[in-house]
Amino acid sequence: MDFELKDEHRMLRESVAQFAARELKPIAEETDLEDKWPEGMWKKLGDLGVLGITIPPEYGGAGSDVLAGALVVEELARVIPAVSLSYGAHANLCMHNLYHNGNEAQRKKYLPPLCTGEHVGALGLTEPNAGSDAVSIQATARRDGDCYVVNGRKTFITNGPDARTIILYTKTDKAAGPKGITAFILDTTLPGFSVSRALHKVGNRGSRTGELLLEDCRIPAENVLGVENGGIAVMMRGLDVERAFLSTFALGIAEGAFAEAFKYAKERVQFGKPIASFQLIQAKLADMYTLIEASRLMCYKACILAGQAERGGKGTEVHKLAAAAILFTAEAADKVCTEAVQVHGGYGYCLEYPVQRFWRDSKLGTLGAGTSEMRRLIIARELLMS
Predict the structure, then answer these.
(1) How far apart are the first and last CA of the chain?
(2) Rounded distance between C-alpha atoms, residue 302 and residue 307, angstroms
(3) Fewer beta carbons below 10 Å: N end or C end of the chain?
(4) Are 46 and 118 in contact (CB under 8 A)?
């Protein structure tokens, strides 16, 4: 096995790291304190060429692979996890799904402005009473001529308050259960759509999360993603890629927290010497490094296998591996960030030190896009079926 990144992946990583240092680091504290998306950031990410990272060039994308997207997620999360979170929802949950499930007319219409950052993308699945049990959604869509009339409420939608294009899941046949779900491409300029409120979160502040309301919103029939009552296939088809793509969100957070702890341990002097010279601090740093490197191997392997499977590769190992990668890495990041705060002592509990931001941001990894408990159930199911 070759553990070295390809030249194109290494160059991409360096380019995004330089971007993050230049554009994100100076505004990290302000973004968190004000809970405000950085002005002009979508256009900057578009100019960087990463918004359509897995989208073919004919639609304005970079035509790269799942690992490339995951590297972007990782490098952004090292500096401002909130920007990484919104990026992942846009580039993967919306754009990647739209490309792989949309028809040619839908791709040509919706993907180019998403690639440039002119439009913002989101995924509209979760509802107030449908989280882990996603197939129990209650939003309805009723065919009426050449449109579907949609009613319902969505919540915890990353980019929801700003999105122009949303992959929206509804029930078109309630009696059919999971087989009665239909996915749509929602243009949020349509009458009947509104943002009922923006949610205030303890972490990842700056990434806008909202509750969405649809009241007799008429979505053109041509905006069905896939086929009517075929939404469960759209939902399941992209899950392995989603988990692999987003697993590096937690990896980047852990790396950012570790960098802060390592720097502080070398600079902070107690009893006449840097605390990095104390064995208990050294043990913490060693454990943090080990968790990060183990996470990296799992994430990158999951991304490579997910990309191969999406291109028609054989094998189902990726089903459990992708879930394992995001499970392990999210919990590892949670531990790394807690230890990073501990290395800082009392200063780690003060807002003036950035380590507390990574600490707050890391918790989402065990809750969002599937809880750690649900990921364990997925892995166990795959093991028992094999």
Answers:
(1) 25
(2) 8
(3) N
(4) yes
CA distance 333 to 365: 8
In the chain the domains, ranked by start, together with CATH numbers, are 7-120 (1.10.540.10), 123-229 (2.40.110.10), 238-385 (1.20.140.10)
Look up residue 239 and give its two tokens: 């899950």
Kindly report, residue by residue over 241-298, the tens digit of the pLDDT: 999 999 999 999 999 999 999 999 999 999 999 999 999 999 999 999 999 999 999 9
pLDDT tens for 117-169 read 999 999 999 998 876 677 789 999 999 999 999 999 999 999 999 999 999 99
222, 257, 273, 284 from 342: Cα distances, Å = 54, 11, 18, 9
pTM above 0.90, yes or no: yes
Cα–Cα distance measured from residue 222 to residue 185, given in angstroms and rounded to the nearest whole number: 9
Known catalytic residue at 30? no
* Catalytic annotation, pick one of 242, 260, 339, 382: 242
Q: Are 354 and 205 in contact (CB under 8 A)?
A: no
